[in-house]
Specification:
Blueprint lengths: L11 E8 L2 E10 L4 H12 L6 E6 L5 E5 L16 E6 L22 H6 L4 H7 L10 H23 L6 E4 L8 E10 L6 E7 L9 E2 L2 E2 L8 E4 L4 E3 L15
Parallel strand pairs: 1-5
Antiparallel strand pairs: 1-2, 3-4, 3-5, 6-7, 6-12, 7-8, 8-11, 9-10
Length: 253
């Protein structure tokens, strides 16, 4: 019966494959001289359904159902299949449910306690410990002395920078990790309870901040919500930074 059908267009077609039991589509190329039965056999390893339980639906590029490819002896090319179309596989096996292979809640999870993990010899932690990497790296007295000196120098530079900033000064905040550059008024300079080191509290001209001058229940200065923020002294430049005029001329819109 297969001899009654002929391939009408190009010999290979590129289609998207979806399935009623999986949420993950895939894109595949097939010869058009495959029979539908042969195509189903190839789809077994793609969607996980058994060939006898498959119903193949052909959808257009704009997701309209064109035809159900129900004749296993017919050639794929005898149907109006073109590049970019979708073949949807419906699994008619009543023992298989929707999401059978994608619902991770049904997967038994492997859990290992911290103590049990520490006892194992085949872990990343043990590898790092064996090769003295990361937190297990051995630091020589010279390295410890150098790191301590660098830390002290950084703290001194931060303190000096903080002392040069005065409450009430206009400023620009330019943190490369948190663009854009923002303008505001210095409201606080000093150490805080929320993190070590010196911090500068700024009341921004626009609602581009993260708080109202308080962090974790402690108030450092007063301002409207979303107008307050804290940054390290290194990102602060004080000077003549007037509020920017953000009003737009309606005649130029």
């Amino acid at each position: 019966m297969a001899g009654e059908f002929t391939v009408q267009t190009q010999s290979i077609v590129n289609v998207q494959i979806t399935s009623s039991i999986s949420d993950f589509p895939s894109e595949k190329r097939f010869q058009k001289d495959l029979t539908i039965g042969q195509l189903k056999s190839k789809l077994e390893v793609i969607v996980g359904s058994a060939a006898p339980a498959m119903e193949l639906q052909l959808f257009s590029r704009d997701n309209q159902l064109i035809v159900v490819m129900s004749d296993d002896s017919a050639l794929l090319g005898s149907y109006p299949v073109e590049d970019g179309m979708r073949i949807h596989v419906i699994d008619r096996d009543p023992s298989v449910s929707v999401g059978e292979y994608t619902d991770v809640s049904k997967v038994e999870k492997f859990e290992l306690s911290t103590d049990d993990y520490a006892k194992r010899a085949d872990t990343v932690r043990e590898f790092k410990k064996k090769h003295k990497m990361g937190q297990f790296r051995e630091i020589t007295p010279e390295e410890q002395e150098r790191e301590a000196a660098e830390k002290k120098q950084k703290e001194e530079e931060e303190e000096k920078k903080a002392q040069s900033i005065k409450v009430g000064e206009r400023c620009e905040v330019n943190n490369p990790k948190l663009p854009p550059v923002k303008r505001g008024l210095v409201m606080f300079v000093g150490k805080t309870d929320f993190q070590a080191g010196y911090w500068v509290g700024v009341k921004y001209d626009e609602p581009v901040g993260k708080n109202d001058g308080s962090v974790k229940g402690k108030r450092y200065f007063e301002c409207e919500p979303k107008y307050g923020g804290f940054t390290k002294p290194e990102y602060i430049t004080t000077g003549d930074f007037p509020e920017e005029d953000l009003d737009m001329d309606l005649d130029e819109m």
